[in-house]
Amino acid sequence: MTIPLAVAALLVGTGTAVAATGGAPGVGDPYFPLAGNGGYHVEHYGLTLRYDTSRGRLDATAVLTARATQSLARFDLDLEGLKVTGVNVDHARAAFRRDGQELVVTPRRAPSAGEEFRVTVAYQGSPKPVTDPDGSADGWIPTGDGAFVAGEPQGAMTWFPANGHPRDKSSYDIMITVPNGRTAVSNGRLVSQRTAHGWTTFHWQQSEPMAAYLATATVGRFKVEQYTTRDGIRVYNAVDAREASAAAPVLKKLPSVLEWESGLFGPYPFRNAGSIVDHAKVGYALETQSRPVYDAAPDLSTLVHENAHQWFGDSVSLTSWKDIWLNEGFATYAEWLYREQHGGDSAQKTFDSLYARPATDGLWAFPAGDPGSGKNIFAAPVYARGAMTLHELRGAVGDPVFFRILRAWAGEHRGGHGTTAQFVRLAERESGKNLDSLFTTWLYTAGKPNSA
Ligand code: TRP
Ligand code: ZN
Questions:
Q1: Domain spans of the chain?
Q2: Which CATH architecture has domain 317-444?
């Protein structure tokens, strides 16, 4: 008996439908369900951007080299706003549609599991920030002379098609063309800077793996300073002239801050470092990888904080936004330690003055390890109670073991990821103590803890 052609096709269709399903629209983070995407990992982003600062217009091409983790009849990228003019997958025109923050791509031929494929997205428009659940602006934020670009937690998609969750880390080449007189600053190393026909192109290269939210392409009128530290770290500072005099005494301390942090946390995780000091009313700084971005001249504590994130948050990344205390608690505790070791208040004194706050204070609104939703990830309990958790740990295990724990955490997860459960296990392993009740109390129990 011969099977009619149409039925055969149907059978094949059904058979492949199981394997060649689409990639998920998010990685499954409960705080940001659509952040990132399923079915592939991005190995490298090649972004070519041209930003016309007078019109606030971006013309861009993104080339993503990705590896499928399943057969991909269809897959998503995160992209908010902007107009997509074409998508190619492996040199063949691909079909695409927009669905909110999802750019849904249907390739001519589905990459199979384990296969590397290349996606090219041409896009343009006037990038605008997204508003985070806590009301703050995030992403490409136009300024009077360019743009302040900071993507935590979800703003990467406002300026490039991304697998926008820290679970995916990639290397980057970012090429930004801006009108002469403007400087475009991104992550990693400045490979080249070329001027032609009134435009200057900056080629930046971030070779160590980076989460999309840590990418920047901040544009402004900046004074630039470059040097290499005693440890061989290349420093590139870009400073808005209006912030220069306030920034200078703080930026001068960057090499000694990095040296001090390396002494405590282990070797600095990247080859490049620096600062971008803009003049923009954004209300926060961000630990953009290898080169934090500040919306105004930072104070010393903020410089210490953002650079501590290079170890905790950038090199060791989150797998879930719920674990944000692993970033903010650690960077905040670095500030306390810096003060303690530089003639200021002891960490104990900082802890005590926070602990003195009444049970009704916002500090005790939720436990550090369970912010509850994306609205709370940058709230006081994450930062201050997160740091208090580390101080409690330090008290329980003693200084030598505590600092060994910090170094082991940064060292063993360098360039990768870490979860709270892994941190707890590491702390127990290094100390030989059962620390369950300490972490349960400080990270997971509602209200002001009884014992200090
Ligand atoms: N991670 C930044 C820091 O503490 C802060 C930050 C990033 C932030 N994005 C934000 C704070 C959005 C409030 C709102 O170094
Ligand atoms: Zn921080």
A1: 5-220, 221-258+269-312, 317-444
A2: Orthogonal Bundle (1.10)
Q: Pocket around ligand 1: residues whose beta carbon is below 6 Å from it? A: 132, 134, 136, 138, 152, 284-287, 305-306, 328, 378
- The H-or-E segment that residue 124 falls in is strand 116-125
Whether 187 contacts 291, CB under 8 Å: yes
Nearest to 82 by CA among 130, 124, 129, 119: 124
* Closest ligand to the CA of 330: 2
Q: Nearest Cα to 48, choosing from 37, 39, 59, 40?
A: 59
The answer, as to whether pTM is greater than 0.85, is yes
Cα 284 to ligand 1 centre (Å): 6
Residue 268 phi, psi dihedral angles, 5° rounding? -55, 130
User: 315-361, pLDDT tens digit by residue?
Assistant: 999 999 999 999 999 999 999 999 999 999 999 999 999 999 999 99
Q: Tell me, which fold does domain 221-258+269-312 have in CATH?
A: Zincin-like (3.30.2010)
Atom nearest to 302 CA in ligand 1 = 15
- Per cent of the chain over pLDDT 70 is 95
Contact 156, 164 (CB under 8 A): yes
Query: How many angstroms is it from 447 CA to the middle of ligand 2?
Result: 23
Pairing of strands 199-211, 189-196: antiparallel
Among 132, 152, 275, 310, name the best residue to mutate to test ligand 1's pocket (greatest count of ligand atoms within 8 A of Cβ): 152
Check if the beta carbon of residue 386 is closer than 8 Å to that of residue 329: yes
Distance from Cα 305 to the centre of ligand 1, integer Å: 11
Given a contact cutoff of 8 angstroms between Cβ atoms, the answer to whether 132 and 65 are in contact is no
Ligand number, closest to the Cα atom of 292 = 1
List the Cα angle 412/417/418 in 5-degree steps: 75
Helix (H, G, I), strand (E, B) or coil at 259: helix
Average pLDDT value for residue range 35-52: 98
**Ligand number, closest to the Cα atom of 153:** 1
- Give the closest residue (by CA) to ligand 1 atom 3: 286
Please give the CATH architecture assigned to the domain spanning 5-220.
Sandwich (2.60)
